[in-house]
Amino acid sequence: MPVEDALLIAVNLFGISSGHRERNRARVHLRLMREPARLWQVIVPLNRPASPFVLRGEELHLGGRVVAQVERIDADEAVGGYFRDHGRAVTLNPNARSRCVGCAFCPNTLEAAADPRLDEQRGLGELLAALAEAHPRKDLGELGEVTVSTGCFRREQSAVDHLVALRAALRPAGAGGARIGMLTSVLRSSEAFEALARTVAPFVLRLTVECFTRRPMMLKSTKADLALGAMPDLLARARGAGLETSYTYIVGLDSLPEMVRGVTALAGQVTAFPNFQVFQAHNVLMAGLRTAGAQSLDFYLAARAAIERVMRPTGLVPVGWECYRPLWYFTYAGQAL
User: What's the CA gap between 336 and 54, in Å, rounded?
Assistant: First the structure.
């Protein structure tokens, strides 16, 4: 793997030491000195005095060397929506994501909030109209992906109703053909999958797996009560209904053998590369949730290699804009991304 990938994984793991002592999390736009053509966004704490990465002015230093130029720093606020992939994708937080405080490792409680809970179609229409004004080309017609990222749908039918309303709101906005995705654990029944196939597809279910072990301790009840043994069948039934499938997973909470066991169990049931994230500990309590060895960069490099071995037969590869804390940047399994 290139040193640039290891460097960016390490920034995610260790955070940055800077004068921004009040910043638990910030969106940092940077260009590596060795690869200045690529602009990356990382979301990391800026108040980590023990980090080997030190921000001085607009330069990021490591071991006395400048390794990156920082072009912009923004507060990581929970907002109603934001663009990704150069305006070809949008992430929506329509159900007050900042109010979801159920999972032990989640940094949402550290964020400022500007993401009010929306009414269904009317509220969605207003949000999409505001996003259209903010779009780089004032046009939502080029959207290929709309992701609903929220933890506050507690009932399956509420999630289905919201997705139906979102599809209806996208049509007059000119984005009726965009694929909708949802990060959720409440969509589980074959009836829900069939309803989504009829009324919402194209749709990708991004199952919020997060971890395979210690689930009752780590996760809120609407996630924790889904056992690993039930996950392959759930994804298989979603695929059987004609939906696309994937999942989110936080590397650093499970041991490497348990991670490999879980990723192997799900590999044959996903149609899109899973969202594997580097675990970030934002305080002492979160640091205590790490599995043994996960405070070290070596753990994540080993996890990267292990996931590549398991996922290689699927033919799926990571999509760079889908994850802000990934294990892959410039290469995957030795091939350029």
Answer: 29
48 three-class SS = coil
pLDDT at 215 over 50: yes
Is residue 310 scored above 80 in pLDDT? yes
Domain ranges in the chain? 1-76, 77-336
Cβ atoms 247, 266 nearer than 8 A: yes
CA pair distance 164, 157, nearest whole angstrom: 11
The CATH fold assigned to 77-336 is: TIM Barrel (3.20.20)
> Do the strands 53-56 and 59-62 form a parallel or antiparallel pair, or are they unpaired?
antiparallel
Q: How many CB atoms lie within 10 A of CB 212?
A: 21
Rg of the chain over Cα atoms, rounded to whole angstroms, equals: 19
pTM (two decimals): 0.91
* DSSP output for 231-300: HHHHHHHHHHTT-EEEEEEEETSS-HHHHHHHHHHHHTT-SS--EEEE----SHHHHTTSPTTTTSHHHH
Asked if residue 18 lies in contact with residue 55, where contact means CB atoms within 8 angstroms, the answer is yes
* Mean pLDDT for the stretch of residues 161-170: 94
Kindly report the CA angle at 119 between 169 and 82, in degrees rounded to 5? 65
Cβ neighbors of 37 (< 8 A, separation 6 or more) are: 31
Helix (H) or strand (E) holding 74: strand 65-75
